[in-house]
Amino acid sequence: ERRIKVAEAKEIFKEQSRPAELQLIKITPSNCEDCFDIEKAIIELKNQNINITSEETFSINSQQGKEIISKYDIKKLPTMIISGEVNKSEQLVNYFNQKGEISENNFVFTALNPPYLDLSSNQIKGQVQIKNIIDSSCNKCVSLSSVSSLLKEQGVFIKNEKSVEYNSDEGRDLINKFEIKEVPAVLISDDIDYYSQVKTALTQSGAVKKSGFYAIHSTVPPYRDLSQNRIIGMIEVIYLTKNDCTECYSVSVNKNILLRFGIVINNEKTYDINSPEGKQFIQKYNIKKVPIIILSPDANYYLSLKQAWRSVGSTESDGWFVMRNPEAIGTYWDIELNKIVEANN
Question: Domains of the chain by range and CATH?
């Protein structure tokens, strides 16, 4: 009796280990070179514990293809239909459930990524178009050229991409049509909707769809503000120092801090407190300590800097940012006391 049970166990194990015998039918669209590569899905399938005993391919335009599409209510192409021992093992059933639908011992693959042929509309879905609206005269402006690369990394198929100058006829038409207020901007066609995770990220970022496109723009300066018709976020920096104060910290430290905040410096000037310009700044802004920096009003567009500035300086009525607390960085010169003050004092 024990021998019989062992033999039965061996037979059960042998049967469980036997590859499932399956028949494969592939249905392909016509004239869709960009569509999902069903061959990759077939290769992945063949890596399972299976044995394909027959394999056929039919075009959407063939009579057999049309009949199979109707029979299995297929909605997207390309696809494959698997028949045979689709329920042979739990592992195989789990695999098929992840990749499509099982019905009456037949499996229909539905997990295809865009682009694909949508049979209800007879249109290829997921071929994304991108239009970059640029200002090539602004070589310091932030670039959005990486958007398409990021989309491709997420598996998005970019059918075509073009760049348009903001002040060209086409650029002005796009700006008016999509109510664009900042340049550079990127228009992404609504075929991006077929990439659900990317669409979710777009809508969460505040992008709104209009006339078949999502419009996004940089929120990080510098960029061209069309309502002001100028580049915003190009900062002028004034370094106010006492040149003969060798113990005072180097004002270059301030510059490095600004760069860490992402500040784009358009021009910079250094004045000694005894120079005519230095005296003018001291009087105008009632400056009592140096070295300090003074920033032009466009610093206001750098939100992280604006927030941090509250602890080190003031924003004047004319919009300029004036540093007030050099002791936060190092040893400084006190103009009123006419002496050096150590940083730790």
Answer: 2-118 (3.40.30), 126-225 (3.40.30), 234-341 (3.40.30)
